[in-house]
Amino acid sequence: MDMRAEVWSPLQNTAVWLGSWLWGHETTDDLLDALTELGGRPESVDEAPFVDVLAMLRAETAELTAKRGERAEPVVRLALSGPGEPPALPAGSESYHAAIQSSAGAIIVRTNNPTRNLVLIPHIHSSHTAWQVIVEKQQLPAPAWLSPGEADALLAQATSESADLIAATGYSTEALPNPRLTVGTLSDFYDTPGLPQSTPARAAKLFARADRVAAIIETVTDRINDHSLDPQLLRLWRHIRQARMTGVAYALGEFAR
Question: Do β-strands 41-44 and 128-136 pair in parallel, antiparallel, or remain unpaired?
Answer without folding.
Answer: parallel
